[in-house]
Amino acid sequence: MATAEINIGQVDDVQELQRACQATVPERYVRDGDDRPDGAKVCDHAQIPVIDVGELPHDGELNKLRLACEEWGFFQVVNHGIAEEVLDEMEKVTREFFMLPLEEKEKYPMAPGGIQGYGHAFVFSEDQKLDWSNMLALGVDPAFIRQPKLWPTNPASFKETLDKYSGEIRPAVRMNFYPPCPRPELVLGLSAHSDGSAVTVLQQDMSCAGLQVVKDGAWVPVHPIPHALVINLGDTLEAISIPFIP
């Protein structure tokens, strides 16, 4: 039986909650005790591997990459060849979009059951705990997955910047914004998960280390490196790389 999402209009916009300076968090965003961030085991002294793409395929860097894939499934890459101004401009227009008034952002709504546009994806029930974040997701390549009506025209340079960025990075782009929360110990910006794709390329905001990955049962913060990209090996790649034993 197919499962449909609820109407996005029934979900609070967390940025508007934050702008309203509400001191409380709606129950839909409050995590149960075991799922709260203040109860998680965090390992601050560890750091995910950093791979210098310019040093590949030298044996030393190649071995670091192999170990990063086998032992972490996450790593950061530097000297990757993508122009710094492309990364900077994408971060700039993304931030400008999320700073727009709600009525402007709602011109690009994510339809119920959809995965493109502005809003909350994968909302299936009124009882579901929601992430403390806003999202804009857009398909880019191949051309037939594009939905031009969902591409913001404000900021004016958004489309040109996204075209250039996606040509360097990947064919689908998702932008997440995590506004401050009055009770951050009760919420999650993004629920714990693994990516179902083969590879995810992530560009982090340089202002804070919000991303964490699990290693040996503990959460390890991923500290941003200027103009580095985080590589996440997803479930698909893990499945196809498992040795077959007849």
Write a brief caption for the model.
By secondary structure, the protein is α+β, with helices and mostly antiparallel strands.
Please tag this protein with its features.
alpha+beta; oxidoreductase activity; IPNS-like_FE2OG_OXY; metal-binding; 246 residues; iron
The total strand number stands at: 9
Mean pLDDT: 87
Main sheet: strands, sense, barrel: 4 strands, mixed
Quaternary structure classification: single chain
- For this structure, the CATH topology is Jelly Rolls
| Termini separation | 35 Å
Domain Fe2OG dioxygenase: 169-246
Keywords: Iron, Metal-binding, Oxidoreductase
Family: Belongs to the iron/ascorbate-dependent oxidoreductase family.
Protein name: Fe2OG dioxygenase domain-containing protein
Report on this model:
There is one protein chain. The protein starts with 13 loop residues before the first helix and ends in a 6-residue tail after the last helix. The strands form 3 sheets. It has a 4-stranded mixed beta sheet with strand order 1-2-9-6. Strands 3-4-5 form a 3-stranded antiparallel beta sheet, with helices on one face. Strands 7-8 form a two-stranded antiparallel sheet. The chain has helices at residues 14-19, 59-71, 84-98, 102-105, 158-168, 235-240; strands at 50-52, 74-78, 117-119, 134-139, 172-177, 199-202, 212-215, 218-221, 229-233. The model is unreliable at 1-9 (pLDDT under 50). With 246 residues, it is an alpha+beta fold. Helix 3 (84-98) packs across helix 5. It has a single domain, classed as B-lactam Antibiotic, Isopenicillin N Synthase, Chain (Jelly Rolls).
